[in-house]
Specification:
The protein is an alpha/beta fold. It has three domains: 67 residues, no CATH class; 166 residues, 3-Layer(aba) Sandwich (Rossmann fold); 72 residues, Helicase, Ruva Protein, domain 3. The chain contains 16 helices and five strands. Bound molecules: adenosine-5'-triphosphate and magnesium ion.
Length: 365
Amino acid sequence: MLNSIAEAKGYVKVAMKCESTNKQKARKLYLLASACYLEKSKKESNLLHEQMAHYLFAKAQALKKRQHKANLPDSTKEIKPYINLKIGFDDICGLMEAKQKIKEKIIYPFEKPEIYNIYKKKAGGGILFWGPPGCGKTILAEATAKEAKAVFFNIKINDVLSKWVGESEKTIANIFQNARKQASVIFFDELDALGTQRDGEENSFTRRLTNTILSQIDGIGTKDSKILLIGATNSPWNIDNALRRPGRFDEIIFVGTPNKDARKKIIQLQLRQKPISEDIDYDAIVENTKEFSGADIVALCDDAVNIPLREALEGKAIRNINFNDFLTALKNRKTSIKIWYQKAREELTKTNNQDLFREVFEHGN
Ligand SMILES: Nc1ncnc2c1ncn2[C@@H]1O[C@H](COP(=O)(O)OP(=O)(O)OP(=O)(O)O)[C@@H](O)[C@H]1O
Ligand SMILES: [Mg+2]
């Protein structure tokens, strides 16, 4: 019988323990406990007990929802698009050439099809971003969606390969179907995950996934020109050639190490709205971060900001972030992408593909 609060507490204790292993049992126990509290609250007009009853009931309801979701087959867990995107081209420092190419290749044909039509320029096809890690491929893809006033589907190929085994065709088909409903950018990240495995041992799963993606891309057609395609990779030389044919990822854009101006802008963006001292010598920092990726510079700024922050937390005087903080931070930060350039050069020299990806030899020294 439902009577004592002690009994209810016992239920809650067990429910909390088995919440992750046996949701059904946990849910029942929370409901029992909730009923105990409710009965007691009525008998004694105790508001706290009533609140507790509501709280436990909500916990049981939440478990019901989670349980329902966990039981769904994988294919129904669709990839949702990002809307209300925050990052635009102005938030991306440097990469001027890349931005211009993106505009001409996908944003303008998308916004002004009639002008492209006059010059009989065909819209369509996608862009492949390639380059070292942390230099802006993902944020550039997101910003492209914002500039094109589109929603953004972010698909990590490795996730599709691991999470949607056996369901990948449906998952990809669902994404394209959803994308057709509105202006959309579909971003395929880690595209090389398809190619490398195909080159080696025959892998029927990656082959099927590649074919599914190819047939969906080929099916876009002009009537669906509201779908923009972007791919990204750190190793384009591993990408299946079929993905690079006309109408597919047929424009390739190098997203490389930020230049002087871009590095300065990234630092300024990172320090925006933070208390900074006038002594910060941006040019000196820029000189000392020659081979840094964008992400490395963000991390460096974070390290510098942490110094006065930590001091303040320890009870010292609150002060502005100064140049010395950057000098201290610089002692512990090195480029993380030198190794990428080295490996890429080795690989391209070995396979005699230096001319195809010459940016690897021209940048990152
Ligand atoms: N050009 C840039 N302008 C402004 N911020 C940048 C730039 N490049 C990199 N960043 C910063 O570095 C972070 C990482 O960038 P991003 O995720 O786009 O790199 P990526 O090229 O996609 O790397 P990966 O190959 O590892 O996926 C961004 O969130 C941003 O803070
Ligand atoms: Mg990325």
